[in-house]
Each structure stands twice: as C-alpha cells, then as structure tokens.
Amino acid sequence: MFKGFRGACFYKVGHLGLIGMVVSERRLLVRFFQIGSVLALAGSIHVLTLLLPWYTVRADSVSTSVLSGYLLPETLALSVAGGVLAGLSLLVTSFSQRPMAVRTVLVVLSLLGGVLAMVSPLYLGLVRVPALSVAGEPGIGFFIALFSAIVILALGGVALMTRPRVVEIPYQGYGGVSGATVSSTQPMETTSFEVAGEVEEGVVCPICYTSVEAENAVRCSSCGVVFHSGCLDAYVNINGTCPNCGRAVV
C-alpha cells in the first residue's frame, strides 16, 4: 500500500491493472463532524422537550391535568439517555481521526440514542396514560420529542450510508499493450512539470478531485493539466508518467 497526499491512499487492485484511490479522508471526517453536530443538536432538543407538556389527561369533563416528560421517571431516564448518546457523537467526531471508526461509533450512538428517545414518548402514550384509565390527548412536547427521535435515527442512517468514494485510475506500471509488441528501443515521449503560478478558480485536481490552490499547484508541460504537487508526486513515484497524457516524467 502506498501513502499519498491530502489523505489519499493508493493501493493495487485487479491483477495490477488498476490503482484505486480512496478520495479525501479529510472530507469524510468533515462530513461525519457535520452529522455529529446535527445529532448533538437533535439530542439537546429532545431533552428540552421534557419541559413541555407531553399529554393532557381528563379525569372528568371538568378537571384536566398536564403531564410533562420530566414528571415520570421512566420518560425522564429514557429521554436523557437518548439525548446524551446523541450528544456524545459530536465528541467522537472531534477527537478521532479514523473515518471508519468514527462512522461505526456514530451509527451505534445514533441508533441507540434514537431508539431510547423514540421509546420515551411512546411509553407515555401507549402504556402509562392507558393505565390511568382516563381520556387524554398528546401535547406539543410529545410530537417534538417523537420528531427529534426520528431525526436522530435518520442521521444514523445517513452516517451508515456515508462511505469513502473510490476512483479507478489506469495503472501503467505493469503489463504491456494488448495486441501489440512494443520495441524496447522505441523512444517514449517525455514530459516535465512546472509550478503553475496562477490557477483559475474552480480548477480541480484530477487525482484527488479537490480544488487546487496556486501555492501547491503544478502543471504538465505537455497537456497543461494542473495537479496538486503532493498528489502528483505520489502518482509519479508509482507510475513514472503523467496521470493525464501518459508521457514519461523526466
């Protein structure tokens, strides 16, 4: 395995015919941090709903009572546990630098937190209120608590589906040209790279697919394509050619 630049990782696949590149681990960590931030927000909102009226019960046609989430020890414990688990995901994304480990912990915390947060209002509405043998109707806190629990579960699904993107780049370091014999004495076209100087806004490196800044940009003297200097160094060290035009680098 060959370590590249800007979080890229090169490895040989498919009978040495292609090189795969796991694109931008940094971007993956940023995405997980964003998911963790929203999870923490949803968990905080869920805990705050404990202060709102979850249910209004009527003992008779005259008297009514308002049940808030914090009044019952079961709903209080379930909601706080669910909100805390969702909030811990932000700490994980802040301190870990391993994308797959962050992804696993995010999924586990969000699913556990979401299930606990979901059970809390459902337990009140489907178990405790019917046990009182009184009529009642859910309040605004009940619906917000339920919605925030759904958001936590949905974010867990988003984290589960977020994976590194693999790009296949032709690998020319092994094998020959199919259907033809190339003479060892046949000269190969060469190229060189130079500092790009100015780079137009929006230019993307063909290797890592992230934007190129002028301070770390190099340009192929043959095809004129701009690359990150680090990405190009990693590619040339393996292949010895320009990733775009295929000419040997001298």
Shape descriptor reads rod-shaped
Oligomer: single chain
* Rg from alpha-carbon coordinates: 28 Å
User: What would CATH call the architecture of the largest domain?
Assistant: Up-down Bundle
Q: What is the third-level CATH name, the topology of the largest domain?
A: Butyryl-CoA Dehydrogenase, subunit A, domain 3
Number of domains: 2
Number of strands: 12
**What is the helix tally?**
5
Distance, first to last CA: 24 Å
CATH structural class of the largest domain: Mainly Alpha
Order of helical and strand elements:
EEEHEEHHEHEEEEEHE
- Helix proportion of residues, in percent? 40-55%
Mean pLDDT: 78
What share of the residues does DSSP label as strand, in percent?
A: 15-25%
The SS-based structural class is: alpha+beta
Protein name: RING-type domain-containing protein
Keywords: Membrane, Transmembrane, Transmembrane helix
Organism: Caldiarchaeum subterraneum
InterPro entries: Znf_RING (IPR001841), Znf_RING/FYVE/PHD (IPR013083)
Description:
This protein is an alpha+beta fold and 250 residues long. It folds into two domains: 2-23 and 165-249, no CATH class; 27-161, Butyryl-CoA Dehydrogenase, subunit A, domain 3 (Up-down Bundle). It contains five helices and twelve strands. It has helices spanning 25-48, 73-95, 99-131, 140-161, 229-239, and strands at 2-3, 9-13, 18-22, 53-58, 64-68, 135-138, 166-170, 190-191, 193-195, 217-220, 226-228, 248-249. A four-stranded antiparallel beta sheet has the order 1-2-3-7, with no helix packed on it. Strand 1 (2-3) and strand 2 (9-13) form a beta hairpin. Helix 2 packs antiparallel against helix 3 (99-131) and helix 3 (99-131) packs antiparallel against helix 4. The protein is rod-shaped. The model is unreliable at 1-23 and 167-186 (pLDDT under 50). The chain crosses the membrane at residues 28-55, 75-93, 105-127, 139-161. It comes from Caldiarchaeum subterraneum.
